[in-house]
């Protein structure tokens, strides 16, 4: 199972897009082994867990009209725990590394900003520009 979120800020100057993004994810990744090759004794399971991982990245791109081509890269961190079960004792460490990637973003829908105010109707008619007394 994996659950998490992403947060970021992107800004545009002319056709260039730049920003920062971060994500964090909770996982229930668990690996088990019980053979002598894992240096485990009878009745004991060697277990490895990774309950969390996340990244912090910079982003740089170029907009071709409404299509964005970008590259991203930065720091990655994963919490890894290893131990024996039973007893459920684990040593843990943060493992830092790097992450990178590239992508293309394009709109799925052609959404335009909504017009604020009163829609055209007899109730919301434009005020008359005629001077008082003119018919």
Mind explaining what this structure looks like?
The protein has 135 residues and is mainly beta. The protein has one domain. The chain is 0% helix and 64% strand. A 5-stranded antiparallel β-sheet has the order 1-2-3-4-5, with no helix packed on it. The relative contact order is 0.16.
Note the gap between the termini. 74 Å
Rg result: 28 Å
- Give the strand tally: 5
How much is the average pLDDT?
81
What is the H-and-E element order? EEEEE
Helix content: under 10%
Largest sheet entry: 5 strands, antiparallel
Q: Please tell me the total number of domains.
A: 1
Which structural class should the secondary elements be placed in?
A: mainly beta
The side-by-side strand order for the widest beta sheet comes to 1-2-3-4-5
**Percent of residues in beta strands:** over 45%
H/I helix tally? 0
Overall form: elongated
Detail the poorly predicted runs. Answer: none
Provide key terms for this protein.
single chain, 135 residues, mainly beta, 5 strands, elongated
Gist of the model:
The protein is an all-beta fold and 135 residues long. It has strands at 2-13, 16-33, 45-64, 67-85, 89-105.
Task: List strands and helices in order, with pairings.
Layout: E1 2-13, E2 16-33, E3 45-64, E4 67-85, E5 89-105
Antiparallel strand pairs: 1-2, 2-3, 3-4, 4-5
């Amino acid at each position: 199972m994996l659950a998490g979120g992403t947060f970021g800020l992107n800004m545009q100057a002319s056709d260039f897009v730049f920003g920062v993004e971060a994500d964090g994810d909770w996982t229930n990744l668990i690996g088990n082994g019980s053979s002598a090759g894992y240096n485990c004794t009878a009745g004991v399971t060697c277990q490895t867990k990774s309950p969390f991982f996340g990244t912090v990245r910079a982003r740089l791109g170029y907009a071709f009209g409404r299509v964005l081509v970008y590259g991203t890269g930065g720091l990655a961190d994963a919490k890894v725990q290893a131990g024996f079960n039973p007893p459920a004792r684990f040593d843990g460490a943060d493992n830092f590394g790097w992450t990178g990637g590239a992508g293309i973003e394009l709109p799925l829908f052609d959404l335009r900003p909504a017009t604020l105010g009163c829609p055209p109707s007899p109730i919301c008619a434009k005020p008359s520009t005629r001077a008082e007394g003119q018919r």
